[in-house]
TrEMBL record:
Name assigned to this protein: Thymidylate kinase
Pathways per UniProt: Pyrimidine metabolism; dTTP biosynthesis
Record keywords, A-Z: ATP-binding, Kinase, Nucleotide biosynthesis, Nucleotide-binding, Transferase
UniProt keyword Transferase, yes or no: yes
Enzyme class: transferase
Whole-protein residues included: 42 to 256 of 269
Coiled coil feature spans: none
Amino acid sequence: PALAGPRRGALIVFEGIDRCGKSTQCSLLLESLQKQGVPAELWRFPDRTTLIGGLINEYLQKKASLNDAAVHMLFVANRHEKRDEMLRLLAGGTTLVLDRYSYSGVAYTAAKGVPHLGPDFCRSVESGLPAADLVVYLDLDPELSAARGGFGGERYEKLEFQKKVRSQYGALADGRWLRLDASQPAELLQAQVAAAVQRVVEQAAAGEQLGQLWD
Ligand code: NYM
Ligand code: MG
């Protein structure tokens, strides 16, 4: 148990294929945490506002091409460059809600099927980053996500690729993930998320140690 210092915040991560409803759920959760007086911030990865994030943005918008390994390392670097700030906020008692994180890194790159960029390699380069206290996985059939107003024009937003990403998430998910059927209405999802988040916020505050990737 922590003897001194503030109660730490929890690291909550939302994952899922494109257009599964992550951003909506992240905002609803942030609002509800703030209403309860829980100090919280919402971040998203990639963080397109940094120098590295700018390169990632150009790649995703198809203004730049990069090979699969190079862009993978940029996504990874984009998390590592935010590591110290994440740890500082968590230690100071702020709960962080992340719209995508390392789990996206593994699922999207592994979905490319490049032999030297498989799941084991992808996990290895995440070492040293904090592990999520809770991964909320919004599971959705890509046929349904594609029908939701269609994909934008970004790289990866193609039905066939999204199916591969979903199957990578399936392989990555462990029993500790909260897997939710994302075809449910937003309010129903929100209630299930809130209950699980409340538990992990309490556990974190009670001194449960922050894990490390990849564990
Ligand atoms: N993405 C996101 C990756 O390929 N690797 C990563 O490490 C991360 C964090 O970026 N299609 C992909 C998934 C998305 C895209 O994310 C941009 P968003 O949440 O659609 O803005
Ligand atoms: Mg997207």
